[in-house]
Design a protein that fits this description.
It is a single chain. The protein is mainly beta. It has one domain (2-264). The protein has 1 helix and 18 strands. The protein has one helix at 77-82, and strands at 2-3, 14-19, 29-40, 46-61, 65-74, 84-90, 93-99, 114-122, 126-140, 146-159, 164-177, 187-202, 207-215, 218-220, 227-228, 236-242, 249-256, 259-264. The chain has an 18-stranded mixed β-sheet that branches. Mean pLDDT is 86; it is low at 1-26.
């Protein structure tokens, strides 16, 4: 296994200062450090990403390379230097792990330490695991075999991902959007513990729609009226073939919150 190998570009580092607007006082200064590395990868490589707080933004491209950009943020140079982005590569697999030192259990000094990761990968690659405790997840233009993502708290936005998508979120807002439709066999399995799920699809899209709001409402633009279940008057669900159905399946589950199925034109 090779760790931290770079192909084509040297690391680029930059530092900048900005004022922090938030809890802890406006006099605190956030230190930021940016880095970028590029790795040659196979078109169908399997990629895993782990981060704690911040963001993971994944974009599919037509190039056989993986570009990893990271923006570290902390209150002190010491803590900024302790944050590490470990990239390990081997044939057919790449892992990106953000390592942040534990925050102090007592006291209120230097609770900072977040990382925003922007990763450009081959669109045909698979995401075997994407794990983020809190923050933002973006998945754009993925066409590989599968994508698995887990978020604790925050928001997820998945756009034009014609893949077997498996997304789990504990609390927050999830948006699944398609600007166009492809008659391919793929699935979107979405589970939200507490929050809302919004799905936007072209008007001509044909697919099997499964939706369940255990304690919430479902609004559907595709003329299929949600039904309440006999087991619970608070539960609503849909099991319908949209536009005659098709090879794709979209399965949305929300335990506490609402679901919106929106019809849009490409």
């Amino acid at each position: 296994m090779r760790s931290g190998a770079v192909h084509g570009l040297s690391p680029i580092f930059a530092a900048s200062l900005m004022l922090l607007n938030g809890c802890g006082g406006a006099d605190k200064i956030v230190l930021q450090e940016f880095s970028e590395k590029v790795y040659t990868v196979e078109p169908n490589t399997s990629i895993s990403v782990q981060n704690q707080d911040g963001a993971i933004l994944v974009y599919g491209s037509s190039l056989n390379e993986m570009r990893v950009q990271s923006l570290k943020k902390a209150y002190s140079h010491e803590r900024l230097n302790q944050i590490a982005i470990d990239v390990s590569t081997q044939p057919g697999a790449v892992s990106v792990v953000v390592k942040v030192p534990p925050r102090p259990k007592w006291g209120f000094w230097d609770f900072s330490g977040t990382v925003d990761c922007t990763i450009v990968v081959p669109a045909t690659a698979s995401i075997s695991a994407l794990d983020l405790n809190a923050g933002e997840v973006l998945l754009d233009g993925m066409h590989g075999r599968e994508v698995h993502a887990r978020l604790g708290d925050g928001q997820i936005f998945a756009r034009n991902c014609f893949t077997n998508l498996d997304v789990t979120m504990k609390r927050g807002t999830l948006t699944l959007a398609f600007d166009w439709w492809e008659q391919e066999k793929f699935s979107a399995q979405v589970n939200v513990g507490q929050g809302n799920a919004w799905v936007f699809l072209p008007s001509e899209a044909g697919f099997h729609l499964l939706a369940r709001a255990a304690r919430g409402k479902i609004a559907n633009d595709f003329n299929n009226v949600p039904l309440t279940t006999n087991s619970s008057p608070q539960e609503m669900k849909i099991d319908q073939l949209i536009n005659g159905g098709g090879p794709a399946t979209i399965n949305i589950r929300v335990e506490k919150g609402d679901i919106k199925i929106g019809e849009t034109n490409p």
